[in-house]
Design a protein that fits this description.
- By secondary structure, the protein is of the alpha+beta class.
- 25% of the residues lie in helices and 22% in strands.
- It has a five-stranded antiparallel sheet. A three-stranded antiparallel sheet has the order 1-5-4.
- Strand 7 and strand 8 form a beta hairpin.
- The chain is globular and about 50 Å long.
């Protein structure tokens, strides 16, 4: 959803070099960016709200430059104060996006402190946060849905070169890699799945290669290799030069 998408995610320590943009197959309603790049990205993300809503999810979006991206309480202020400026802006934008996602499903939320490197939400509230290139997104589940259902998203606006596939895929997944499923899409989908499986089942994968992806309808089914019955359905949408991935069920 960097400045890795999941604080403490399996590949946060080493991000590969970036390369030319890649596309992704999706039936999500997304269109080409126009005008200012950030405005186009916000518009494309905004078009995904109905799809998220149909799955019982609220979608929140914020820019790192948003003046409302400010600490919502002393815990957020203390956490942000210890960060370099770039990371601080992303952190606060992510918290703002999470509050907006929760508001979209009718839930208010004050400050969101940290437990280690993970966001700590008050009881009855949860969101998955991601940020990339100055844009933050979050998804939150409606209160009438299973609060322990998988929840995960990922935003990648700096596409990965094809050569990094070995960091994402194992041999039995290499046939997935194509113009339809470039490495950025597969990486992002696995990131979203990792967060969802970690939250709902406390699954800890050493790397994204410990998850296995396979086509499923117009998205991907991603399961843990150690327990294949633990799986989620991920949809991927092109956004600007990159992609947004979200676990729908």
């Amino acid at each position: 959803m960097p400045a890795h998408s999941h604080p403490g995610g399996p590949s946060a320590a080493a991000r590969p070099a970036r390369s030319r943009p890649a596309t992704a197959v999706s039936r999500w309603p997304a269109g080409p960016a126009s005008g200012h790049p950030e405005a186009g990205i916000l518009a494309e993300l905004g078009r995904l709200r109905p799809v998220c809503a149909a799955a019982g999810l609220g979608l929140g979006i914020a820019l790192a430059s948003d003046p409302q991206a400010a600490p919502a309480g002393p815990a957020e202020e203390a956490a942000a104060a210890a960060m370099p400026p770039h990371r601080r802006r992303e952190f606060l934008a992510g918290r703002l996006a999470a509050r907006r996602a929760l508001r979209a499903v009718g839930l208010d939320c004050g400050e969101i402190p940290r437990a280690g490197r993970l966001p700590l939400f008050p009881p009855g509230r949860a969101a998955s946060i991601s940020h990339s290139a100055g844009v933050a997104v979050a998804v939150a589940r409606a209160p009438d849905r299973d609060t322990h259902a998988p929840l995960g998203c990922d935003l990648e606006l700096r596409p990965l070169p094809a050569g990094t596939a070995r960091l994402v895929l194992r041999e039995d997944e290499e046939e997935l890699l194509s113009d339809a499923w470039p490495v950025t899409s597969l990486f992002s989908a696995k990131e979203a799945a990792w967060k969802a499986l970690h939250r709902s089942h406390e699954v800890v994968a050493g790397s994204l290669r410990d998850l296995r992806a396979e086509p499923y309808g117009d998205g991907l089914r991603i399961a843990t290799r150690s327990a294949p019955e633990l799986a989620v359905h991920v949809r991927v949408a092109p956004v600007g030069p990159g992609v947004f991935s979200c676990v729908l069920d």
